[in-house]
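Supplementary Text 2. Reproducibility record for the structural model of the 286-residue chain.

All settings were left at their defaults, and a single model was retained for analysis rather than an ensemble. We include the record here because the model underlies the residue-level annotations in Supplementary Table 4.
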Amino acid sequence: MKKIPLRAFPLAMLFGALLGAGEGLGLLHFSGLRFEMPWLEILGLQWRYALLGAVLVPVAYVVAGLLRLKRDTAPALASWVLGTGVWVLGNYWVQARMLRGSSMFGGEGLGWFLGLTADVFVIHLLVRAAAHRAPRAALRATVVLVLLLPVASPWIMASSALGEHAADTRGKPDVTLVVIDTLRADHLGTYGYRRADGQAVSPLIDQLAARGAVFENCWAQAPWTRPSMASMHSGLFCSSHKVNNELAVLGDDARTIAELLYQQGYRTGGYSANFNVSVSTGFGQG
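Retained model, structure tokens:
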């Protein structure tokens, strides 16, 4: 059995970094994500994809062997890693952004699936050809792209900036919506819960509740985060906003509370530690 060419690992890491930069720049441009130092975020994404590329080299080696494909050169193995990455990311974004979770094997979905599968082989052939005819030039071009793409991130982000406007909220109250995902009401002091030693478990929430209105009965519209938050932000039932599976995103036709406030002159913003409530899942509207 032939050994895996050691040069395949740094090459795959390089291609992985290129792929990570590409996805990062795409996210910045199309999703409206804002970062203080976008180039640093791109670099972090590049490193994660580079490590993933190295991990996938043995997998590519085994798969190429099973399919009786050429696997005795480092560029060949690295190109399979790059092509597979494009295939996975391409199918994900097509499903999440364009087809909105419809079947991958029906109509338009099947066309995209087959097209992206063909792209894997095209990428493999192009990389092999470049490595064979001008290996040093191809390598230098890839290195330059990997190094320069993070530098381009501030301009990419600026080109997708949301419309800014001067906030005019004179005489209007500040509005802050705080959501703690999966927090149990029956473990809050506001609703009568106490620890065995009698100490309060949520003193700050209890103080806030004492100065405001407490609702005794509330019903979530779904048992998991994304559809439940879609209803909270849009005021729609799950049957209307249709954010009911892992690939579904909140559509542009849903008017969110942030959009309504923005139209009334508020400066709006959102911060989330949960991927289900993010710009990429449709919650950046407004």
